[in-house]
Amino acid sequence: MPTSGSTGLPNSPGIISVAIGQWSVAAAPTVLRTLLGSCVGVVLYDRAAKLGGLAHVVLPSARGGVDHPGKYADTAIPSMIADFEQWLRGNSRVRLTAKLVGGANMLPMQSVANASVSMNIGQRNQEAIEQILAELRIPILARDVGGTAGRHLTLDTTTGIVTIKVPGGANYEI
Question: 21-31 b/e with 16+ CB inside 10 Å = b?
Fold first, then answer.
């Protein structure tokens, strides 16, 4: 049975759509999916247990707030790991691997006081997530981040394969 940070919305048997600012952890044969723009999809996977998780991270830091833990990198990742630990009775971190998807620069350059300033939230999300995963010693096996296009992400918890579709483009796997 899937667990989630008040997140996963079952669309059909075995498929969970993870909403913006939410996360979900589920065992095989469940499929987790989401649509990303500047948000970053953090996929955690335990190959031995065939257990996968997906967090749809909106912003890098909660800055002490805990109202919506799935929204922020610094609260979503620890919350998702806690769900893994519940499934695996505390023996998860040594087997977790990560994949990152999204983080597109969806906003054009902004002009502020005659200076161009990028509001690249996607890049800031990616940097925060990578730092958190490094501190937790969770290796990142693959990344598909940046650019200017959104992405559909699908995680197959049976295989750990992440399938990506860029609207108007082909499907590919990481």
Answer: bbbbbbbeebb
What are the extents of the domains in the chain? 3-167
**What kind of fold does domain 3-167 have according to CATH?**
60s Ribosomal Protein L30; Chain: A; (3.30.1330)
Rounded to whole angstroms, the Cα distance separating 157 from 18 reads: 14
Written as six digits, the tokens of 123 are 């890049």
Instruction: Answer whether 71's CB lies under 8 Å from 57's CB.
Output: yes
Specify whether the backbone of 128 is left (phi greater than 0), alpha (psi in -120 to 50) or beta. Answer: alpha
What pLDDT does residue 168 have?
A: 87
Dihedral pair phi/psi, residue 119, rounded to 5°: -100, 45
Q: How far apart are CA 68 and CA 29, in angstroms?
A: 28
Per-residue pLDDT tens for 73-125?
999 999 999 999 888 886 655 689 999 999 998 765 554 444 444 568 888 99
Going by their DSSP bridges, the two strands 31-36 and 15-17 should be labelled as: parallel
Q: From the candidates 18, 26, 39, 101, which is the catalytic residue? A: 39
DSSP 78: H
Per DSSP, 17 falls in state: E
CB 103 within 8 A of CB 41: no
117 is catalytic: no
C-alpha pair distances (Å), 36 with each of 57, 78, 104, 114: 9, 20, 8, 31
